[in-house]
Amino acid sequence: MKRVLPEKYMFSYQGDGDLAAIGTGETIHTCNRGENIAIFFINNGIYGMTGGQMAPTTLPGMKSSTSPYGRNLDTMGHPLSLTEMIAQLHGTYYVTRQSVHTPANIRKCKQAIKKAFENQKLQKGLSFVEIVSNCNSGWKMPPVEANKWMEEHMFAAYPLGDIKLPKE
Amino acid sequence: MDSNIRLMKGNEAIAEAAIRHGVDAYFGYPITPQSEIIEYLAKEDPFTKRNGMVVLQAESEIAAINMVYGAAGCGKKAMTSSSSPGISLKQEGVSYLAGAELPCVIVNVVRGGPGLGTIQPSQADYFQSVKGGGHGDYHMIVLAPSTVQEQYDFVALGFDLAFKYRTPLLILSDGAIGQMMEKVVLSEEKPRDNTVPDWAIVGKTPNRERNYITSLFLDAEVQENQNKRLQKKYTEIRQNEIRFEEFMTHDAEYLIVAYGISARISQKVVETARNQGIKLGMLRPITLWPFPSKRLVELSQQLQGILCVEMSAGQMVEDVKLAVECKIPVKHYGRMGGIIASPTEVFENFKTLFL
Ligand SMILES: Cc1ncc(C[n+]2csc(CCOP(=O)(O)OP(=O)(O)O)c2C)c(N)n1
User: Fold this and answer.
1) How far apart are CA B249 and CA B323, in angstroms?
2) Do B41 and B171 fall into the same domain?
3) What is the pLDDT of residues B108-163, one digit of tens each?
4) A32 and chain B: CB distance < 8 Å anywhere?
5) DSSP bridge pairs for B234
6) Per-residue pLDDT tens for B83-113?
7) Strand (E) positions, B87-241?
8) How far is A122 from chain B, CA to nearest CA, in Å?
9) Which ipTM score applies to this complex?
10) Domain spanning A11-161: which superfamily?
11) A123 has a chain B CB within 8 A of its CB
12) Domain annotation covers residue B216
């Protein structure tokens, strides 16, 4: 879309099941080509839409409908952090990991999203914003508890902050 | 767990059948309306808790079908399942499996399309299933269950046929049969059988030539010969494996042809018609490929018309017309996009079309 409508802002909004599983190849190559777009990656550690199956980002021991006894690293692999992987590619310009569970984090995340679009306006290349999120229905937790669980467990595996900043 | 009769969802019946039939490996990727298959297998955890069956959630449908290719090449009983969009992704792999003559069972719990479509039941993947789907001259044997019991039974039947003919086999289900719950009589659990066919890739031993599994034959003549082999096999399957069921056809003047969930609805239509003195019968193809064309020709001698009831714009109706060479009127009635027609609706349309 960006190649055929270069004057328009383009962004994708993707889950971990999409970006880190079935779409891994496309994600890596889009980043590697340095497409002048913004990718917003919502990481809730699970396939939400389809009813809570294990995602590549599911944490060790975490229960899901396809890992009902907890993710077993020997048979189901390790959590995959595509964000750190694509940060190593020459094609990515700005890579950051944010969250939206407190007003302060929402403000920070807003800044990151704004920066991603500014980069695009300046034709700087690909900006990648991961947003670590919860999925209370998929995690089978009340919202407040899900946020707490996210802070305690998800942030340990997926630490918040900038991962790749433009060299000015 | 001990009782051999259970109330199960169609999807769960497939999963339990896989374990009980001694399937060696299942590779899948979640998609509605069939995710219960992999979820049931994950919960049963047959690898550690039952008979050592491998269950793996792949990163995509393409990965899953290629894992099936690998395991089938090792001579193992391998299967995968998905629903329409995911089955489309698997087509390259299916063509390779057919070309390399590898047996496996693939389940499609069809949902409404095209595209991402809906999660409601549909039968619009008929063409893809019986006409090829992937590239090249090939067929899969296609079994169409219309009860949860058949969902269960066709796993064993599917593997038997797939191995007999060294061909991929498709169980063409739909979102209604996958999701509905019915009584299922379970078979005894078979231990997994560690013997593999002599063509399997198991590492070369000194006393035989190496086995080679490929669908690549660069020399056109060799490729043509491979095609001839396949066609010979398909002729044999057409001769031996056609399956269908008839309902009140002995004196029928009109016939409904329907499979899967549409056959369940059409059976009710036949009953309604009979109550009103209309001589309507039904033929339910169980194998969609090979298609029961010969039986349709025989029946057509006594018929004044055929109605195809399918949840599509009209796909199987083409095979029915081909079978009877349009010598009698053949019409289609169906709903699309995930809508199931009611028996009353089908009956009213039958009357408008034929009476
Ligand atoms: C080819 C294909 N396979 C499978 C699916 C089923 N499916 C829909 S959404 C989804 C994953 C959802 O997880 P994620 O991308 O993490 O997004 P979330 O719902 O958690 O926001 C899957 C597997 C599909 N739509 N298409």
Assistant:
1) 17
2) yes
3) 999 999 999 999 999 999 999 999 899 999 999 999 999 999 999 999 999 999 99
4) no
5) none
6) 999 999 999 999 999 999 999 999 999 999 9
7) 104-110, 141-143, 168-174, 181-185
8) 35
9) 0.93
10) Thiamin diphosphate (ThDP)-binding fold, Pyr/PP domains (3.40.50.970)
11) no
12) no
